[in-house]
Amino acid sequence: MLGRRGRRDDREERIPVLQKSKKGKESRAERELGVDYHQYGFDMQFIRRCRRIYRVALPPLMSGEAALIMLLLFMIFPPMITQFLFAILPGWTMKTLVSRNLPGFLYTLCITSAVAGLDCIMGGLNFFLSLYISVRLRRRLTYYLHDHYLSHKKFYYHMTQTQQLDNPDQRIQNDSAQVTVGLVTVLCIIVSSCLQIGVYTCYVTWTVGWHGTLIIYVYYAITSLINKKLMSPIVALTYNQDKLEGNFRFHHARVRTSAEAIAFTAGEEETKVALGEDFGKALRNQTTQIFKQSYLNLFTGFIGNGNTMVGYSIAALTIFTHPEYAKYSPSDLAEAITQLTSVIGGLTGSFTSLVNAAPLASSLAGNASRIGQMMEFMDVLEDEHQREQKQRSHAMDQAVGSLGKHLVGGDVLMRVSSLNCRLPSGRLIVHNLNLAIERGVNVVVQGPSGCGKTSLLRYIRGLWHLRADDGTVHTELQVGTGGIMYLPQRPYVFTGSLQRQVTYPRDDPLAPELSWEDEGAGIVASLMEELDLMHLVSRTDGWNTNRPWHDLLSLGEQQRLSIIRVIYHRPQLAILDECTSALSPEIEETAYRLLNEAGITVVSVAHRPSVAHYHAKKLLLDGQGGWTLSAVPKKGDKQ
């Protein structure tokens, strides 16, 4: 018992903890919605996650995409210059109006029109570049997430052994799009605003004095602290909203795929109630998010309107405290007042741009947290994979050394040595199993329900990891064409044409595939005839017409297609898990005959006693760790 507990504890220690809750007083909304406002926010972890996302999404320095990013950063300067001119030109215009100088007014009007046209062109170009670059960054980020999530069985480990990462499909599809657009937009706002703040700070200090600059900086320092306080709940609510929307969408997807089962059992009303519960959770969270967002928008609006009062107050302070302004003519004084308020407005406007980015930044923080969590989750799984590989390599070296010869070779396709298998609960299902799978000698695995037959296959395939002292599974066959193939009870129905259902998975997914419409299906067509599947070709107007196969194919048709898929790839060894459970005895016999004629050695997990007749050996599990290996009597022999 202690040994089993130790194994479970060791496994639990390796399960990644994505985010630890921070200490803080919990509000009523947090308790009702199940979200922790203190868990996500603008902190060092958010900055680290954004930096990592940038490292993944940003292209190499010497590339076309990097050149576009440099162009976007360069294009920040022309709008900054035009905005500065907009702060100066009103003073000139006011002076010409007060002095009734028509030629001067027309001159400043032409300059203002030219600057306005340039500003519109630069703004449109910046908008296009920012969105186009965000699409390119999303491409790199999504491919990175796909590559890591679908390697080393990380997706399988997540779906079967830990559920800490909610809705990975939504994170890859939606959050990656939102985070790349948000990062580019926020970066442009921060860079341009900081540059403008630097320019306007120098100009305001020169024209107004240090007291004006100090007042503006203190004003925005206070408002920034309040702003951050208002933004933190929105970050957590955005994170939670994406999670709840993903759950609601996934529930609808399950209804779509299980429509027939729901209809047969008349479960519409209960399904409707369950969907309503998921939708209600998302709606309550969204309502709270709207209220919190409204508070933030109200505050940012107050800051924006307060800019005018701050600007006029500083201008008045400057004019009333500097005696030289009393000597100005009315036109010069109008120009000075207009330029003072415009320049001060430029500085406050630059700060306001940062403040107005708060709603976007709060959503960005929620999306970045979800993408960052996924990256951290995959890092933990990658470390787990590397650790398991080292353990298995060490165990294999010990096994080879103890035997003093090759574990496999010749007619031995796979060798299982001293294998101990346990369920995740710790229950022992196989103890000290030794088995050699020889070429041409089919083996059937049988036993009572729940004895661990499929679990044994998971260990053999490597989906469940073996500890160093749990034995070894050794084969020199590679998974795929000509090597070894595993066939589950419910095969994966690939998106695409009927031809792709047969050829999946291809060794090179990027290689062009010849159309069977032109070349002919060859032996596949005869296999379809043997297994009574040619009606699928006529039903879908040929081999290469895309159809929603998951909805069109019955389980029996899926299993028959999977048998053809195995024969098409011609592996030396096929491991089948209840892959004929939905077939009639006649079709089942035909399937095993075709596999035998193709020269494929088979290891089958089956409940039907009749399946044993297509095998030479039977491995019988008792579910308590015991097992027996015996020869299968031929048909007609007395048992």
Q: Describe the global form.
A: elongated
Work out the helix count: 21
Biggest beta sheet summary: 6 strands, mixed
Order of helices and strands: HHHHHHHHHHHHHEEEHEEHHHHHHEHEEE
Distance between the termini: 39 Å
Binned, the helix content reads: 55-70%
Q: Indicate the multimeric state.
A: single chain
Radius of gyration: 35 Å
Based on secondary structure, the structural category is alpha/beta
Strand order of the largest sheet: 5-6-7-3-8-9
Beta strands, count: 9
What proportion of the residues form beta strands (DSSP E)? 5-15%
Mean pLDDT: 78
Return residue spans where pLDDT drops below 50 for at least 5 consecutive residues: 1-23
What would you note in describing this structure?
A hairpin with a 5-residue loop joins strand 1 (412-422) and strand 2 (428-438). Helix 3 (44-57) packs across helix 13 (358-403), helix 4 (64-74) runs antiparallel to helix 6 (102-149) and helix 8 (168-207) runs antiparallel to helix 9. The protein has helices at residues 2-14, 28-33, 44-57, 64-74, 77-98, 102-149, 154-161, 168-207, 210-257, 259-265, 268-321, 330-356, 358-403, 453-461, 498-503, 516-519, 523-530, 535-539, 549-552, 555-569, 585-597; strands spanning 412-422, 428-438, 443-446, 472-474, 484-487, 573-577, 601-605, 617-621, 627-631. It is built from 21 helices and nine strands. The radius of gyration is 35 Å and the shape is elongated. The strands form two sheets. It has a six-stranded mixed sheet, with helices on both faces. The chain is an alpha/beta fold and 639 residues long.
